[in-house]
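Sample intake sheet
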Amino acid sequence: MTDQACGRGIRYSVLAFATALFVVGVAGQVRAQPAAPGGDKPSDVAEVGPRGQGKTREIRYSDWRKFCFKPAGTKMICRTTISGAWETGQTAVRLDLIEREGDGSARLQIFLPVGLYLQAGVRLTIDKGNPYRVPYAWCFTNTCIAADLAAPNAIREMESGQTLLLEVVDTNILATTTSLPLNQFAAVHQGAPTQIFDQAIDE
């Protein structure tokens, strides 16, 4: 795992998923690369504390939506998702809760800009509860993805909470935070899908 920025990107999209990923510009170009070993937990690595607070740009968030995918003969996979964009219209962050029918487990997946300090991971705090650390799993030229299994108690906290505070650390070791609304999450997560697709997708 390196501490470098992951490059300047223009557009990135997820095949068969009807939402665009964020667009962001940061200097440098690299190929897609692993950002952290699988199964990386807070107890396995030294957590990096930021040196201060970075400048925060305003992010406007979409409503929560639930998209499901069910190709013939397979179990349904659903993503409860929210995305946030800067004032320019460029997507700044996207958070997915991914669940496969009958598995009884869920995965949290967060798409973020490049140019972040990968060792720090992503820090999530629901209301004023205990924080969760989500390690970065993969980087492309214009996006880095943090991902981990979602603990059942974290999902319950999201369903009963009001705000999800997301904190990242940039390469200057400065923290930047943004607040995602949770007031719609429970109804959307427990409700019928916004849309069902019959295509297969890569999880």
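Comment: Helices lie at 152-160, 185-190. The chain has a mean pLDDT of 78.
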